[in-house]
Amino acid sequence: MTTDTTQVTAASDYAASGFGRRLGFGSKPALIVIDFVDAYLVKGSPLYAGVEEPLKSATRVLEASRAAGIPILYTVVEQAKGPTGGGIFARKVTGLETLASGSPLGAIAAPLTPREDDPIISKKYASSFFGTSLATDLTVLGCDSVILVGLSTSGCVRATAVDACQHGFIPLVVREAVGDRRQEPHDAALFDLDAKYADVVGEQEVLDYLAAFSG
Asked: Which one is catalytic: 31, 58, 156, 201?
């Protein structure tokens, strides 16, 4: 594991080369809840990741987003049966069989239960943008930025943040509200995202920002 001293050195090195500039909050954000399903929370599931604390944080961000009246969108991985299935992704990660269409473990975790009018975007791959209507939906909603919570930091969160940047939306990754099955890839993904593609922000900073909309 990388030591704190090495992290400081890495941060300084990146900053000196022009990485890690702040994008700042947008004026018309949307919240995207990425793949926060029971498969990652039910012990005994092949995908169980021990992400109970990020779930609590994501729930607080969701409640603040509802109070602020900003758009809220959900994504879920849904692996279809048949010859195309989940493609190369499913071949690489066999645990994704847990998320086959109709699996009870594919349900969004109860504290984050969508409302009837919340869009739920089904995807087959890591990025919430790839092969989905998300970019168009955000444009229709007039959004300029996305607040990202969910799972996993090094997988679908990272892929979604990179694609948000590439589609012209400011990605804001809530540090406490994303999680991974191991600390090392979680930390590495957050470092890389904050350096190159997104702003990694603290939960309280996001709650304060959202409070301005609802106040």
From this structure: 156
